[in-house]
Amino acid sequence: MLLDSASLYYRAYFGVPDSVKAPDGTPVNAVRGLLDFISRLVQDHRPDQLVACMDADWRPAWRVELIPSYKAHRVAVEHEGDPDEEETPDTLAPQVPVIEAVLDALGIARVGVAGYEADDVIGTLTGRAAGPVDIVTGDRDLFQLVDDARGVRVLYPVKGVGTLQLTDEALLREKYGVDGAGYVDLALLRGDPSDGLPGVPGVGEKTAAKLIDAYGDLAGIMAAVADPRSKLTPTQRTRLDGARDYLAVAPTVVRVAGDVPLPEFDPALPSEPRDPALLDALAARWGLGGSLHRLLATLQH
């Protein structure tokens, strides 16, 4: 089981009231919410291995170089030579180091790699997996990894993590008209304002799915643009031709990396905390109470 950690702690932050505080009054709603999420996921799905995948760089320079608008509207502070800072709610940012410390003390594997997003770590781990993989994320971009033949599915939270959309190829075809492999082309054609991806003007999700259905993939669509006998409408041909520069680089930006240089780590789900004394200190300092007890009880069973 691979967790898109930022996606989940954002959901926890907005789903758990900020009246959930540490003894000193600091909000810990994202920390406790994430611990409850993990507890519920382990209880319901019983994975042998669990990896919390982290955004070491939420806006990698190699993606921005290809599409400068990539996540540009989310930049709070620009740094020359270092990753830009993402606009984060004031009371969420201080909770992230606490989340990291608690996961480490528990012994839950936490992996982030400089220059890459959590999605890329997830893509690389999925490619290397010998058995089935459940990816837990609220980010539809990862639908591209769904692969029935390999047992790769996305558990997409609809309401908390108690109600998950089990995303397999049948669901993708029903909802979007494409399979996992076709999702990259669908995403880049329709664009995604939340990621600063412009897409092709006038091509929404339904048109994108029809084009993929008719011509197979982006290469087939662009071959149809060049073929005067193809059945593209004049407007579609003009729009796709006009977006040629964007379409040349978009696949590299939208497709998750599969070759991230990962550090050594142990993905086995711990039954006992790695550092009980540190965990006790963190629990007392941050008032993690019932959330931590529930997770420890779940891990022991």
How would you describe this structure in keywords?
6-stranded mixed beta sheet; two-stranded antiparallel ribbon; 10% strand; elongated; 13 helices; 8 strands; alpha/beta; 301 residues
What would you say about this model in short?
The protein is α/β, with parallel strands linked by helices and about 300 residues long. Helix content is about 45%, strand content about 10%. It is built from 13 helices and eight strands.
> What fraction of residues sit in β-strands?
5-15%
Q: Mean of the pLDDT scores?
A: 93
- Element order: H for helix, E for strand: EHHEHEEHEHEEEHHHHHHHH
Oligomer: single chain
CA distance, first residue to last residue:
17 Å
Low-confidence stretches: none
Biggest sheet: strand arrangement: 5-2-1-6-7-8
- Helix share of residues? 40-55%
What shape does the CA trace take? Answer: elongated
Radius of gyration: 21 Å
Number of strands: 8
User: Helix/strand-derived class?
Assistant: alpha/beta
Enumerate how many helices there are, as a single number.
13
Q: Sheet bearing the most strands, described?
A: 6 strands, mixed
What's the topology here?
Blueprint: E1 2-4, H1 5-15, H2 29-45, E2 51-53, H3 61-66, E3 75-77, E4 85-86, H4 95-106, E5 109-111, H5 118-128, E6 133-136, E7 152-159, E8 163-167, H6 169-176, H7 180-190, H8 205-215, H9 218-226, H10 234-242, H11 244-254, H12 276-286, H13 289-300
Parallel strand pairs: 1-2, 1-6, 2-5, 6-7
Antiparallel strand pairs: 3-4, 7-8
Helix pairs in contact: 1-2, 2-4, 2-13, 4-12, 7-8, 7-11, 8-9, 9-10
